[in-house]
Design a protein that fits this description.
heterodimer; A: 210 residues; mainly alpha; 8 helices; 81% helix; 0% strand; B: 79 residues; 3 helices
């Protein structure tokens, strides 16, 4: 299971395993995101790699994955924005007054959420076994159970069973993620409660002393 | 309105909804339709994260090498 707390600690320490995981999870999503912002594929990998290199050489420390994801998407958006502005300025200088569409920050965040959803789907599919992945991929391509069975040369019941198992596995994985999230929230809640109790007891003690 | 730091958590929520919709084969919006999901998935799959990671490590190695050569030249200069 993916341990996000450990991942962040190791990422901050520039550990290879964490950085490889960072690339696996974010690199394709950030490239697709940059391509959407720039309306083309050319140069998107350079933009994302520049952001990654910037992060690698920086002394930035993240507290959690959400802060990291926010930073990465924002960094790519800023770079893409600068590139689009430069392109539009160059067009104007050349007498071409039709400028390329620039996404507002709000729209860019929505777009980032979509790419992040796709990234989660990609990672989950990669974890499935061979036949389950084939069934899920064909299902995502819009094929029905009968068609998938015919393409893969297996029975309809096998397709249904593999689909069921795949969804169960994905749900279990997601459940674990939500469980960890809830545990984190509750542990923070109890920490706050404990400090409130300590503060209250200190106040009572001071009052009694005086 | 969502902020940059909401991206990760909010996409978890959307991902659960999308998953339910594709399981029931009833997409409720354009984004969760199989064609869109598959198209967007293929877009991401064309980028090779491993070779990009190798490039980062090589770049880092190059910078370290330049640093070492620079240090050595500086030492030679002083000697």
């Amino acid at each position: 299971m993916f341990d996000s707390e450990r991942f962040i600690v190791e990422l901050n320490r520039k550990k290879d395993t964490a950085w490889l995981r960072l690339y696996e999870e974010f690199y394709p999503a950030l490239c697709a995101y940059a391509a959407r912002l720039l309306h083309e594929n050319a140069g998107v990998e350079d933009i994302v790699q520049e952001c990654m290199i910037g992060l690698w050489h920086s002394s930035l420390h993240f507290n959690n994955v959400r802060a990291l994801a926010g930073w990465l998407y924002k960094a790519v958006y800023s770079r893409a924005l600068n590139l689009l502005r430069d392109r539009n300025n160059a067009r104007r200088l050349l007498g071409n007054y039709t400028s390329e569409f620039i996404y507002s920050e709000e729209m860019a965040i929505e777009l980032a959420i979509e790419e992040s959803v796709i990234a989660k789907l990609r990672l989950v599919l990669a974890e499935l076994s061979g036949q389950q992945r084939n069934v899920m991929n064909l299902s995502l391509e819009g094929y029905k159970v009968r068609e998938i069975a015919s393409i893969l040369g297996i029975s309809e019941n096998t397709v249904k069973m593999q689909k069921k198992r795949a969804y169960a596995m994905i749900r279990e994985r997601m459940g674990m993620v939500w469980g960890v999230l809830l545990a984190t929230i509750f542990s923070d809640f109890f920490k706050i409660l404990f400090f409130c109790y300590l503060f209250f007891m200190s106040c009572v003690y001071i009052k009694n002393m005086t | 309105m969502n902020t940059w730091n909401d991206i990760y958590d909010y996409s978890d929520k959307i991902f659960r909804q999308v998953l339910e919709q594709i399981e029931e084969e009833k997409p409720v919006n354009e984004f969760s339709s199989p064609e869109i999901l598959n198209g967007r998935l293929q877009e991401q799959l064309q980028y090779d994260s491993f070779s990009a990671y190798r490039k980062l490590k090589n770049t880092d190695g190059d910078i370290q090498c330049v640093g070492m050569v620079w240090q050595q030249e500086l030492c030679c200069f002083w000697v």
